[in-house]
Amino acid sequence: MPTARTVISGALRSLGVASAEEPVQAVMATDALELLNALVDSYSLERLTIYHTPATVVPLVPSVASYTWGVGGVLASERPLQLGPQAHLRDATSSYEYEVNVIDQARYGAIPDKTAPGMPTALYYAPSFPLGELFIWAVPTQAWDLIVYPYRVLPHFVDLDTVVLLPPGYERLLRTGLTVEAAPEYGREATGVQLAQLMEAKANVKRQNVVVPRAQVDAALWPVHVGTDLRSWSP
Fold it and tell me: What residue segments make up the domains of the chain, in order of their start?
């Protein structure tokens, strides 16, 4: 598991501005730590570098149509970058879950009556800053639980020596990424080999994180032959 110091040392060695025999100078390490966390922020904006979207339960309050989300908001946890494409509604008195549509700003804006009460069937998340906003439609009439899957930022390095838990492949991605990112700081230009290593490291991570959606075909388009019983046929 990487620490900022191991990632930074590896990157600076790759650039030829540090050696394995001597520790990285304190000033260089501090500057590189800032650059490393900026790189983590940048990778957090790439959907396929996010390795986990944990199921998060939002307890809905009757007659409340929107919630601020982030530190200091009504939902006082880390502000999501965006929400995954699935969401579900669960009756607090049972375990049955209903699907809820995750819609975009245009579709939410087209709803004529955003105050209509009822069972929620759609939600819209606006990633405003510093607090995101979660809008529910219809406005809940009872205390349902909403289950969403937020994309959150990758973990930052709080200091040089605290271990950060990351899946396989991320240490190499951060090291090769920092090598390329830090090169101009030291009057260097990333080599073709270093750029290729970064591309390979990023591709490996994204390949692991990609989820291939299951194909769905309208039943009206299924190839049905004469005499076929639709009830027993499947694509």
Answer: 4-49+154-209, 56-151
